[in-house]
Design goal:
It is a single chain. The chain is of the alpha/beta class. 40% of the residues lie in helices and 21% in strands. It is built from 19 helices and 19 strands. The chain has helices spanning 17-27, 33-40, 50-53, 57-72, 85-100, 112-115, 121-130, 147-155, 186-200, 209-218, 225-239, 244-252, 262-279, 283-290, 294-328, 349-360, 386-391, 416-430, 453-459; strands spanning 4-8, 76-80, 104-108, 134-140, 159-164, 177-180, 337-341, 364-368, 373-379, 397-402, 406-412, 438-442, 444-445, 474-486, 492-499, 510-514, 529-539, 546-556, 561-562. A five-stranded parallel beta sheet has the order 3-2-4-5-6, with helices on both faces. A hairpin with a 4-residue loop joins strand 18 (546-556) and strand 19. The longest helix has 35 residues, at 294-328. It is globular and about 80 Å long.
């Protein structure tokens, strides 16, 4: 792992447990009582208005009027989704809402390999052949930059309503209506629009908040404001869901209903929904979320897990190949990593880019190289807006979209070399050496004697944690009591620590775990005084109920240098 710098966000050191939560809220830029109250007790999602969400009321009204007309006249409606987890959840939400109203509605998910992303010409031609009587397309989780595709859709006889959350382009598509905000994930936008549609038919029950939370967590959007509301209330719905598809997938993954949080959804469940769209067709993932048949749900869950295993293997192989290419070409030290190959599967290049960022801590662009056209995914580091950098090279691109931290684009293969040169120039200009050092943000120094169950319960008030509301991290000086290597491959380091300068049998001793950092075993020993950066968790393994420190980083105060 590369060097990591620590940044203490708040120089105050709490002296009482009651001080800790207030300090953490200030660190999250929640300074007033009103802001803190809104964060700790967010507005229920069904109380949110278009104004709260930054959705244009005129456009929303247009969308509702056109959709209501289509439902009442039994026009063929198509919910045009995306193949990632946010897109699949969005599609399920919108299809379910319209179907419950008696609409004539079908879902459509493009094939990543054959048709590409969003309203592509190939996908629209396929849709026209497959559902020739369709008159209205409702996009979910895409479409906001689809200027030419929307125009082409209209030439085929489709009206298009766009619901999306991605960053606006220079021009808006000429759609019948656009329901857009960057304050929600795609599934959040779809959920809000679906509830408004049902209200227009005098149906007031709130449904599918579990799916809205699923997609929002999976898409790694900031969990503040409306997203926090969707996830806080949606997690409750998710843990109590009656959807047999979710129940079956949870069981297949070895998890337990009622104990599912952002971690389980982000790192266990969502990857299995995503896997279908990455290396196969995503329709079975949609079928899983919509089915009411327990046997079918079980079969689909097994299939998703099998495909995810294949995806993991393919990703690992591609990462190794990409690292070899970068090493051979001596490009691992450039401020932006750019790697292309004709054997790279389009479905995993985003994951590969993310792995390269983890390894080298540099923005990474990974390209699936084709004969005439190439597809690319990019991932970034804090402070470098990758979609802006990519769009600044628009003369080389056919299309581009995404977020500041993640983006994708299509380029003519003949322009790849020039595009790489231009992106490297931009990276050299905009990325400082300091930006290429990992930064661990620590909320504050904490006297470890304050770490108890009362503090842990206070910290639970910040849940759900995620982007823009990270899990609290503290720093403490401690004495090492015991160390040992654990894990089936000996990859983790288990440490017991106690507060510095404490003695006697009543001195609190804290079990701690440093995941994937067993190499530290030879660098620290019993009796050492070290400074640890850590989060506080509750260890319930084997029926236990005790605190455990999860170590993020460790500094040996004797050597006065970082050893991670």
């Amino acid at each position: 792992m590369t060097t990591m710098n620590w940044k203490i966000l708040n120089k105050k050191t709490p002296t009482e447990i009651n001080d800790v939560l207030s300090l953490l809220l200030v660190n999250r830029e929640l300074n007033t009582k009103e802001e803190q109250e809104a964060f700790l007790n967010p507005l229920a999602p069904d109380k949110m208005t278009a104004e709260d969400l930054g959705i244009g009321s005129k456009q929303l009204k247009k969308a509702l009027e056109r959709i209501k007309k289509a439902v009442e006249k039994k026009e063929q409606i198509v919910v045009f989704g995306d193949y990632d987890c946010d897109g699949i959840c969005s599609t399920a939400i919108m299809w379910s809402a319209l179907f419950s109203l008696g609409a004539k509605v079908l879902p459509f998910i493009p094939d990543r390999m054959e048709e590409g992303y969003g309203l592509s010409k190939k996908a629209l031609d396929h849709l026209k052949r497959k559902i020739p009587d369709a008159s209205l397309i409702i996009t979910v989780d895409h479409g906001i930059v689809a200027v030419e595709p929307t125009k082409y859709a209209r030439s085929l006889g489709f009206e298009v309503i766009i619901s999306d959350h991605h960053t606006l382009g220079k021009k808006l598509p000429q759609a019948t209506a656009i329901v857009h905000t960057t304050k929600l994930a795609g599934s959040g936008v779809a959920w809000f629009l679906a509830q408004q549609i049902k209200k227009s038919f005098a149906k007031k029950e709130v449904e599918d908040l579990d799916l809205a939370a699923f997609g929002t967590i999976a898409d790694l959007v900031p969990l503040v404001g409306p997203n926090r509301s969707i996830v806080k209330f949606g997690l409750q719905a998710f843990n109590q869901t009656q959807k047999v598809g979710i129940q079956s997938l949870v069981k297949e993954c070895g998890l337990m209903m009622g104990k599912l949080g952002t971690y389980e959804i982000s790192y266990v469940l969502a990857p299995r929904i995503n896997a279908l769209g990455r290396i196969d067709n995503a329709l079975d993932a949609l079928r899983l979320l919509c089915t009411k048949n327990p046997t079918k749900a079980e079969d689909l869950s097994k299939r998703l897990c099998e495909i995810n295993g294949q995806r993991q293997k393919l990703t690992e192989e591609t990462v190794l190949h990409a690292k070899d290419l970068l090493t051979i070409s001596q490009k691992t030290e450039t401020k932006l990593l750019f790697v292309a190959h004709d054997m790279y599967n389009q479905g995993v290049i985003g994951l590969v880019a993310g792995k390269l960022v983890e390894e080298y801590y540099r923005p990474a662009v990974v390209v699936s190289k084709g004969e005439t056209l190439s597809k690319a995914s990019a991932r970034s580091i804090s402070g470098f807006n990758i979609i802006e950098a990519i769009r600044s090279k628009s003369e080389f691109l056919l299309e581009a979209g995404g977020h500041p931290m993640a983006a994708g684009f299509t380029v003519e293969t003949k322009n790849l070399v020039r595009l790489e040169e231009e992106l490297l120039k931009t990276a050299e200009e905009l990325i400082s050496d300091e930006m290429l050092v990992r930064l661990l943000k620590i909320d504050c120094q904490l006297d470890l004697n304050l770490a108890n169950m009362t503090l842990w319960e206070e910290l639970q008030k910040l849940l759900p944690c995620g982007m823009a509301n990270p899990e609290p991290v503290f720093a403490s000086r401690v004495e090492v009591v015991e160390t040992r290597v654990v894990g089936n491959k000996g990859q983790h380091l288990q440490i017991k620590v106690k507060p510095e300068n404490t003695t006697g049998p009543l001195s609190p001793i804290f079990p701690s775990i440093a995941f994937n950092q067993s190499y530290l075993a030879g660098k620290i020993k019993t009796g050492d005084i070290v400074e640890i950066a850590y989060s506080i968790a509750k260890d319930e393994w084997n029926g236990g109920n005790r605190l455990q420190l999860k170590i993020k980083d460790l500094k040996n105060k004797v050597e006065e240098k970082s050893i991670i």
